[in-house]
Amino acid sequence: MKELNSTINITCISTIRTDNLSFSRYCDILEDKINIRSDFNILPEYCWGKSSLADILKFINILRDRRLKTNIIFGSFPFQLPNNKQKTNNAIILTKTNSIEYVQKTHVLFEESKSHGITGGINNNVFTFSDINFGVVICADLWNSQLIKNLIVNKKIQLLFVPAFTVVPKGYSNYAKYQWYSLSIARSREFVLPIIIADHKLNTEKYDVGNATSIADPSVKHESIKKQTDFLVLPDEHGIINYKMDLEKINEYRQYRKSQGLYVF
Fold it and tell me: Mind listing the domains of the chain with CATH numbers?
């Protein structure tokens, strides 16, 4: 694995397109919230609501033409990729080098398959930014430890971005939130890997969400930790995180884990 030796800036944006929000207005909001000074921006899974793929790609290409010099994970959207026989749920990534890339969700939930007519895909993707390898997994795929291990061992990722939609029955918002907090902390510590999650923020009349937008930085270690959320960077009241991550500290923690026989990847 490459050694990390610099700082990066990360922005998580919880904003989604709701039914009462026009596509053009949603794009205006995104343009306001995307932090072009950050190295990475990430949006939630299924953030586009009832938008069309043509409109989404048109908007992303407009931003591409502006050469924003930031990596943007535009959540996900269900569609059939070129040369793919099946419809999948795909993360859409505009890289700092101005390429548009896609990552398929591998584990599709039953209701998701029914609602969108999608199947699980394959995720062997790794992207590089300033000699830093990063991966993207979509929501439920974070529960697949073998997938994460493969991305680390074979693809050498050093950052993991997770567009999520933690939908649960009414009244179960905290149930989802704290499960996801536990998962991201465990994955981050297990693999000494920063886990960056962008989730939906607001409940609806039909369902609740975990509002689990967070960053798990595995280098966080101090005497004042008293509760689970002390391990995480959490969003402000608007569902936004702007975080400067010290990659050298993460590397130092990885070396410590190796010296103690606690890191074998």
Answer: 7-259 (3.60.110.10)
